[in-house]
Specification:
six-stranded antiparallel beta sheet, Aspartate Aminotransferase, domain 1, single chain, 34% helix, alpha+beta, 4 helices
């Protein structure tokens, strides 16, 4: 698990953007709002921060290596102290959930604007039976 994995995952979400903020933190946003943070420097004590639900926040912070995120815990953000604190699939699910939670909190006008910019899905090709 690494920042490269998180970067690839986050940028796979529609309209997700990235930027470096606060010196060396790689920040991922949707509609200008942060949904994931991962420090780029190895000396940092955290590896990933994401938003979660209040219920999951309390469950997750009981796990060794998962703590309330500094400065953001009041908004139900958690932080991983190391990559192996959770399984890869669980981390991926948390990042997806964080994206969805932040998107849902965007103003309806911003959500509609982003939805309008989304590329249309191509209709599935019909299979024809051959005899």
């Amino acid at each position: 698990m690494s920042v490269d994995f998180i970067r690839e995952l986050c940028l796979s979400f529609p309209h997700a953007t990235e930027q470096v903020q606060w010196g060396d933190d790689l920040v991922f946003k949707i509609g200008g709002k942060i949904f994931s943070v991962s420090p780029l420097s190895a000396h940092h004590r955290l590896v990933l921060s994401v938003k979660t639900t209040p219920e999951k926040f309390y469950e997750l912070t009981e796990i060794p290596g998962v703590i309330p995120a500094p400065y953001m815990a009041r908004n139900f953000w958690i932080a991983l102290e190391r990559w192996d604190a959770l399984r890869r699939a669980d981390i991926e699910a948390l990042v997806r959930e964080s994206y969805a939670l932040v998107f849902a909190k965007l103003p309806k006008k911003k959500q509609a604007e982003l939805a309008a910019k989304s590329p249309e899905k191509k209709p599935a090709k019909k299979k024809t039976a051959t005899r």
